Amino acid sequence: MIEVLGWMSICVGVGFTALGCLGLVRFPDLYNRMQAATKCVTLGTCGVMLGVFLMSGFTALGVKALLCALFVLITVPVAAHALARGSLIFGVKLWKHTVKDEFTDDRGGESIIEEEK
Amino acid sequence: MTILIVILSFGAFFCLYRALQGPSIPDRAIALDIMAVIFSSITALMALRYKLAYLIDLSIAIAVISFVGTLALAKYLEGRSLDD
Amino acid sequence: MTRRIAYLVLGFVVWMLLVYTFQYQEVLVGVGVALLTAVFFGRHLPVQPSRLLHPVRWFWLLVYIPVFVYMCLKANIDVALRVLSPGLQIRPGIVKIRTNLKSDVARVFLANSITLTPGTMTVEIKDDVLYIHWIEVGASDITAASKAIIGPFEYFLARIFD
Predict the structure, then answer these.
(1) Does any domain span residue B83?
(2) Parent domain of C73
(3) Are A31 and B23 in contact (CB under 8 A)?
(4) Chain C: which residues have CB within 8 Å of chain A?
(5) Is residue B84 part of a domain?
(6) CA-nearest residue of chain A to B75?
(7) In the prediction, which pLDDT does B80 show?
(8) Given CB atoms, is A85 within the 8 Å cutoff of chain B?
(9) Per-residue tens of pLDDT for chain C, all 162 residues
(10) Which of A39, A86, C20, C148 would be a feasible disulfide site paired with A60, CB 3.0-4.6 Å?
């Protein structure tokens, strides 16, 4: 029973990770890519680690996998957040169909939305 | 299990495409960060597949190092020095 | 001082989970490492130690986990559908929202929760204003946007951390 749950968790994790990477290739600008990649890869890795924990129980492998899942859950969003903020300040362009950008408006800089050709 | 590892490797391959192609520096950075996290989960699966418990330590180490590297690059992009 | 002791205990527990063997050498090295980190970095512990032993907060944390997992799964299915749909079904933008949470830890957890839930990603926190990159802008007004994005989380996080 627990084995089956572990397999399911690992399969769901791997599937979402692959879809997230596909999103990394398909989406048009940095911020959208970051959204897809961060969400899917975080849940995917946590799923894989949880599956490893379920399949090996309270051994060294299982407990360390659980710890790794917790670590990834906290750090990947923080890294994405820092990188998004850095690239907004650096001036990486937003996609041309972006509706609005209150961050740059409030900082009083020039608009960094890509112009339509 | 082997098939799952191969699927994850294809995911890492997409990330590699974005890292080589990406128009800006943060694109490459986030692609490499995501790639490191995928490698960490590949390593965990390999630990389970080959019954080598010490590989999970490697997985934790990869996650930690990629996090620190990405934060350092984000600080650099903001134009601040690395010590505040 | 209590901060340092809390840091010592936490560091030791994390060390023991990381090595996960209960031989006396490992325990001794663990005590040494936890002591060193507690002396050097103990004052940076972001939580007040008295709150760590508060049973009501832990209860709300346990309630929060299923809610968070549900939102997370919903977010991933949402992103997967957007990735797999042939035309790009997105209308992104950066909006501003306002939160009532006071402590820094609560705000960090709020930002992380926002990043992992459907279609939103935190870009910047400035005091009580958060800038959110929204993949499908639904509401442009600041109060409406706040309600739509952080409504479900603020209730729990205020009970856990504030």
Answers:
(1) no
(2) 54-161
(3) no
(4) 14, 17-18, 20-21, 72-73, 75-76, 79-80, 82-84, 88, 90-96, 108, 111-112, 115-116, 119-124, 131, 133, 135, 137, 140
(5) no
(6) A86
(7) 62
(8) yes
(9) 788 888 888 888 888 888 888 888 888 988 998 899 888 887 777 777 677 777 888 888 888 888 888 888 888 888 888 888 877 777 788 888 888 777 788 888 888 888 887 778 888 888 778 888 887 777 667 777 777 777 777 778 877 776
(10) C20
Q: How far is CA A53 from the centre of its chain?
A: 22
Q: Is residue A81 part of a domain?
A: no
Predicted-complex ipTM score: 0.85
Q: What is the pTM of this model?
A: 0.87
How many Å lie between the alpha carbon of C37 and the closest alpha carbon of chain A?
A: 19
C-beta of residue C94 within 8 angstroms of C-beta of residue A101: yes
Average pLDDT, chain A: 84
- As a residue count, chain A comes to 117
The range of the structural domain enclosing residue B15 comes to: 2-78
In a domain, B49, yes or no: yes
Nearest chain B Cα distance for residue A115, angstroms = 16
Domain of residue A56 covers 2-76
Asked whether the beta carbons of B19 and A30 are under 8 A apart, the reply is no
Query: Which residues, in sequence order, are CB contacts of C34 under 8 Å at separation 6+?
Result: C7, C8, C9, C11, C12, C15
